[in-house]
Write a structure and sequence with these properties.
Oligomer: single chain
Distance between the termini: 77 Å
Number of helices: 3
Number of domains: 2
Keywords: Membrane, Transmembrane, Transmembrane helix
Pfam family, one: NfeD
Shape: rod-shaped
Protein name: Membrane protein
Largest sheet: 5 strands, mixed, barrel
Radius of gyration: 29 Å
Number of strands: 5
Organism: Streptomyces violascens
Structural class: alpha+beta
Subcellular location: Membrane
Strand order of the largest sheet: 1-2-3-5-4
Strand content: 15-25%
């Protein structure tokens, strides 16, 4: 029984889909798309060399174009900060003296415990401070 070339390419595409799912490496998916393109070429009667060439060209093109775009998107911070990330960089008003040992501030309409980033620095009530980081339920200010 002679299996046509396009069937082998589809089997190859399915085989490349397995490591895509198991490893979450998108490159396998891009090569699977290349195998599907080669199957389409085989269906239209392309020879074996042309089929391999279609597979290689489509796979390399997808990896070289899509991968940098995906890496750029992965490296970007989210546009909308939520939770404690949204509080970083905001200003607060000191309610009780804040030093390295602690204190209280009013941040985003709520009372927070706080401590100074610089262990030598002391902030008196009424002073405006900037929130540098949130450590649990404590705002680190300067």
């Amino acid at each position: 029984m002679d299996i046509e070339a396009w069937v082998w390419w589809l089997i190859g595409a399915a085989a490349l889909g397995i490591p895509l799912v198991l490893t979450a490496m998108p490159e396998f998916g891009m090569m699977a798309v290349g195998a599907v393109a080669a199957a389409i070429g085989a269906g239209f009667g392309l020879g074996p060399v042309a089929q391999v060439l279609v597979f290689v060209v489509v796979s390399v093109a997808l990896v070289s174009v899509v991968r940098p775009i995906a890496a750029r998107h992965r490296a970007q911070r989210p546009q909308l900060a939520t939770g404690t990330e949204a509080l970083k960089g905001r200003q607060a008003v000191v309610l009780e003296r804040v030093d390295a040992g602690g204190g209280r501030i009013k941040l985003a309409g709520e009372v927070w415990s706080a401590r100074a980033l610089d262990t030598e620095q002391v902030y008196e009530p009424g002073h405006q401070v900037d929130v540098v980081e949130i450590d649990g339920a404590t705002a680190i200010v300067m």
